[in-house]
Amino acid sequence: ADIVSAIHEHSKRPELTRIFVCGGLGPTPDDRTYVALGRALDQPMVYRRDVGAQMQNLMFTRNMAARRGTASLNAGNRRMATLPQGATLIRNGAGMAPGLAFALGDDRYLLALPGVPQELRAVYEDVELRYLTGARADVVRELHYRMAPESMFHDVMQALEREFPDVSLGSYPQTETRELILRASGPDAVRVEAVIRAIRERITQYAPVG
After folding, report:
1. Per-residue confidence of the chain (210 residues) as pLDDT tens digits?
2. Which ranges of the chain does DSSP label H, i.e. alpha helix?
3. What residues have CB less than 8 Å from 186, skipping those under 6 apart?
4. Domain segments of the chain as ranges
5. How far apart are CA 71 and CA 116, in angstroms?
6. Residue 110: which H helix or E strand, with range?
7. Of the candidates 140, 156, 139, which has an alpha carbon nearest to the alpha carbon of residue 206?
8. Which pTM value belongs to this model?
9. Residue 164 and residue 75: Cα distance in Å, rounded?
10. d(CA 170, CA 101)
């Protein structure tokens, strides 16, 4: 109830263009933020199969590393994948619970982030890029590579930075998922897509996943 009333109160203030809610995104009964967001925004809760699949992939990767075999979702995991309708996912490269963004209109957003410090930092990287630093102008595209060494992409990225100086290009290793994320962002969608296409064409040893 406190979260719902706080969201109602702050969303009525037009000078607040970014409203943050942190914590309470986990699998236990006291993690109530997702449900509170749904109530505050008057949106039904829906099970997101894409989020469930991401969780299962992460669990499988962890279990394989620990030699525990396959993975299946329990009730707590499914709870974490049940989100308010209309939510935009914010990738959590350090854990399972995704961050969420809700457009409130007039370039105003409600943003939900995990409370675990490591996960908060991971999600905030995307929040900062997409919602805090010229997000209205920037186009962001990502490629995800499984078990790919970052050094493999160095020369290609260096060349693309020279060819596309208006596109920001970064690589982000994810220790939990054993993925490497390549992220391109810039004001021109055509230029950003050209960089993504060039990476696909020039890196043939590994294929992006997803």
Report:
1. 589 999 999 999 999 999 999 999 999 988 999 999 999 999 999 999 989 988 888 887 766 555 555 568 899 999 999 999 999 999 888 888 899 999 998 889 999 999 988 889 889 888 887 888 654 546 788 899 988 888 899 999 999 999 999 998 988 887 767 788 898 988 888 999 999 999 999 999 999 985
2. 2-11, 33-41, 49-65, 75-80, 117-127, 154-163, 189-202
3. 138, 139, 164, 166, 167, 168, 192
4. 1-116, 137-210
5. 23
6. strand 108-113
7. 156
8. 0.66
9. 46
10. 22
Q: Which fold does the domain 137-210 belong to in CATH?
A: Alpha-Beta Plaits (3.30.70)
Domains 1-116 and 137-210 share a fold: no
Are 83 and 100 a contacting pair, CB within 8 Å? yes
| Among 144, 141, 155, residue whose Cα is nearest residue 184 | 141
**Position of tokens 């970014």?**
18
> What is the C-alpha to C-alpha distance for residues 65 and 24, in angstroms, rounded to an integer?
28
Q: In this structure, how many other beta carbons lie within 10 angstroms of the beta carbon of residue 183? A: 20
d(CA 44, CA 29): 18
The matching CATH number, chosen from 3.30.1250.10, 3.40.50.1000, 3.10.300.10, 3.40.980.10, for 1-116 is 3.40.980.10
